[in-house]
Amino acid sequence: LLWLTTNICLFWKTFVLYYSGPQYYYLYKMLGLGLCVSRASASVLNLNCSLVLLPMCRSLLAFIRGSQKVTGRKVRRLLDKSKTFHVACGVAICVFSVVHVVAHMANVLSFSLRYSEEFPALNVARYRGEV
Known about the structure:
72% of the residues lie in helices and 0% in strands. It is mainly alpha-helical. The longest helix is centred in the last third of the chain and has 32 residues. It is elongated. The protein starts with a helix and ends in an 18-residue tail after the last helix.
């Protein structure tokens, strides 16, 4: 539950930052929601990629299990379910990788469709409609 809440909050916080942050105003005008979704999914990917190997680290689990602070049966049972957490992180990585790639594909299309005469430095395309 903590992991799921952290993922949701991180996605939402990053999404709102790129949606309403004044430093991303022009980039948001060029790319639209594709910018927000690609950056938010990237931050969730970073979190899950950093967590995916922790549950499989046997020496860390043995150290925590042998610690004096872990005496409850519920806590020990949670430590034994580390493979489930590993799989959940893996699934999240797969899902958010697809979301991230699709958002980048939308960004490429937006760069071409939203060609700006006012801000030539922001344009990736050389002319309107170049794909």
